[in-house]
Amino acid sequence: MSQTITDAAGRQRRSMAGAFVGTAIEWYDFYIFGTAAALVFGHVFYPGAAPGAALMASFATFWVGFLARPIGGMIFGHFGDKLGRKNVLVITLLMMGAATTMIGLLPGYAQIGALAPALLIVLRALQGIAVGGEWGGAVLMATENASEKKKGLAGAWVQQGSPAGSILATSMFMLVGLLPDEDFLSWGWRIPFLLSAVLVIVGLIIRIKVEESADFEAAKAANTVVKAPIAEVFRVAPNIVFLGIVASIMGISLAYFTNTFMLSWTTGSLGIERQTMLNVLLGMAVLQFIWQPIAALIAEKIGATKVMILGLLLAVIMVVPFFLAIVSANPVNIAITLYITTIGGTAYYALLANALAAAFPANIRYTGVSLAYQLCSSLIGGATPLVAQWILNSSNGSPWGVAAFYGAMLIATIVGVAGLSRAAARSSLKAVAQPVAADH
């Protein structure tokens, strides 16, 4: 008996480690693109455009990755639900690493003309397809191998990949940002992308050692694996997909609002030094990394939904102070309000993964979770920097249109979380009731 418990605990630790490391690498790749979109790509790939237009083009390229994410969710979700989680996650990690490394080697507009931004868009789409399949599988690998009590913490460790990737990405750009502007724009920005090749090798060594998901093995043994998971998701759980999309809005939008749009805004028209804002964002990522596991432990005591909604309400309260701090162009004010907002927003984000996983049946869970989260990223989250920049341009630099947009996303997310929680509870009751009915 004690050996069985030890084996289960070891499996849980390996699954959490494999999910965390692989996801951190994938998010590192995704974050360095967002940072480069804010600081570099307008100069390197769209040099002939006016500054505002070049930035919009850069953000539109950034959005391409999000448009491709549902494709990755459908492709890899299909195979993950039919063939298992582990091998699919090895493929997504390799794909992301290859695409990111090639971006680091891509000539700019000055070398190959319009082919440069075209190839950047293609590689960005490959990044999107990879991360579209990665996130859902990593969530399931961690949570499905965890004990019932620790599923929330396991899901939170997957979410730790986001701040870990952000810390690494921001740190790398801080280092290369020390170069003179000419060197930074010509070759320095490429170094973080080329580092991805090394990180992927490390991630693969760890991930290959992880066992297959226990829930998938149980579904396979019970012969409940479905032939067409996508069709089955929309047949049995279309409402959960919709609620999952709404509940995921700030889980995707928050990071790209701060690390891409706000970074561009503050270092551009507001005139704050690039290194100063990268320091502020690094502090935010460190705070997120420390706080998320604490939020998961609090959720074990008072309930995940309560922690998620209270965190989002704190972020709503901070909207006006946060935007007043931004327009003050005072880095200290920005850091204080951003960090308070981060405590609220990431308490919700830490628990989002398990909230989505709990809402779908195991035999369609990879596809369901991936579709909900990645459709949100495509339709709403990935467009956040582009929409926010358009609102800012349209209002001649006034922050309040952007603030209203930001607040509306927070309120919509609260509604989605509440609805998803009720849907998950009904799904759980139905799953318990079915065997009872069969006994009669």
Automatic annotation (TrEMBL):
Spell out the InterPro entries in the cross-references: MFS, MFS_dom, MFS_trans_sf
One of its Pfam families is MFS_1
Q: Where exactly are the transmembrane stretches of this chain?
A: 20-46, 52-76, 88-109, 115-140, 161-179, 191-210, 236-257, 277-298, 307-328, 334-359, 371-392, 398-420
Membrane topology note: Multi-pass membrane protein
Which locations, inside or outside the cell, does it occupy? Cell membrane
Originating organism = Paeniglutamicibacter kerguelensis
The principal localisation class reads membrane
The yes or no answer to whether the keyword ATP-binding is present is no
Q: Where is the Major facilitator superfamily (MFS) profile domain?
A: 15-425
What protein name applies here? MFS family permease
Q: What is the lineage of its organism?
A: Bacteria, Bacillati, Actinomycetota, Actinomycetes, Micrococcales
The alphabetized UniProt keywords are: Cell membrane, Membrane, Transmembrane, Transmembrane helix, Transport
Q: Does the keyword Repeat apply?
A: no
